[in-house]
Write a structure and sequence with these properties.
Layout lengths: L1 E5 L2 H18 L4 E4 L6 H14 L7 E4 L1 E3 L10 H8 L11 E2 L8 H14 L5 E4 L21 E4 L2 H6 L13 E4 L2 H5 L3 E6 L5 H9 L17 E6 L9 H9 L9
Parallel strand pairs: 1-10, 2-3, 2-6, 3-5, 6-9, 9-10
Antiparallel strand pairs: 4-8, 7-8
Helix pairs in contact: 1-2
The structure holds fructose -6-phosphate.
């Protein structure tokens, strides 16, 4: 794992955007795995800026989002499709037919999940997967005790996640109980994983993921087994890491040729 501790979410997001931009410039047909929620908003703002001001070209890219609420259609204000449209897709030149988001209204959920997995494989696999982390350590919506080998499927949200996400809805009772999410096995197959975490509320989950045992009780801890997992943190989310001075030292002494890798 590479732990990148930055002063604030804007700086962390600029670092993550630099990595993605370097990937896209090197591989214009890159397959991007995308996340929703509050965390990636500054990253998407930076990617949109790079598109506008620096000509970063997404026209050859393909995207797969991690998850969607079951029961919410594209026009629901809290659906992840709507979120992506507003926060990224309307601001860059990704082609509509290359965008993939699980369909919260799919009539046959298991068949839809199997087809989603197949599209990822058919695209050549995800080059870089963006992740946030839940305060309970979930990635995608793989809640604690999810199988570390799981594939795209339906999951039931914990009470804590429904409460954490209530601010996207009119009230907590409007938060759906179920989601379709890529599995942990699906996420682990991405060639690079970029996890962003900001704020005190994430500090415990981050410390468990980085320095705790690998356990389904903190699903993000499986990233310890990933060959290219990069964690972009602000000071608050890094505050419970015992070895944070060492991570800073490593980053400050990174050879120049490694910077965009
Ligand atoms: C969203 C997702 C979730 C969020 C996590 C953190 O697509 O998969 O794992 O990344 O719940 O959410 P925020 O960023 O709102 O704190």
């Amino acid at each position: 794992m590479e732990i990148i501790i930055t002063p604030d979410p804007a700086a962390a997001s600029r670092e993550a955007a630099r990595f993605l931009a370097a990937l896209i410039r090197k591989k214009p047909g890159a397959v991007l795995g995308l996340a929703t929620g509050g965390t990636p908003v500054p990253l998407y703002r930076e990617l949109a800026r790079m598109h506008r001001e620096e000509g970063l070209d997404f026209s050859g890219c393909t995207s797969f989002n991690l998850d969607e609420y079951v029961g919410l259609g594209a026009d629901h204000p809290a659906s992840y499709r709507r979120f992506m449209q507003e926060n990224l897709f309307s601001l860059i030149n990704l082609q509509a037919d290359r965008i993939h988001i699980p369909d919260g209204l799919a009539p046959d959920i298991p068949a839809h999940c199997a087809a989603y997995e197949k599209s990822i494989t058919d695209s050549g696999g995800i080059d870089a997967q963006v992740l946030g982390i839940g305060s309970d350590g979930h990635v995608g919506f793989n809640e604690p005790t999810s199988s570390l080998a799981s594939r795209t499927r339906i999951k039931t949200l914990t009470r804590r996640t429904r409460s954490d996400n209530a601010h996207f809805f009119e009230s907590e009772s409007d938060v759906p109980h179920h989601v379709i999410t890529m599995g942990i096995g699906t996420i682990m197959e991405a060639r690079a994983v970029l996890l962003l975490a900001f704020g005190e509320n994430k500090a415990e989950a981050v410390a468990g993921a980085v320095e705790g045992p690998i356990t389904a009780s903190n699903p993000a801890s499986i990233l310890q087994m990933h060959p290219q997992a990069k964690l972009y943190l602000d000071e608050q989310s890094a505050s419970k890491l015992a070895r944070r001075d060492y991570y800073r030292w490593v980053f400050d002494h990174k050879p120049g040729w490694q910077r965009d890798r």
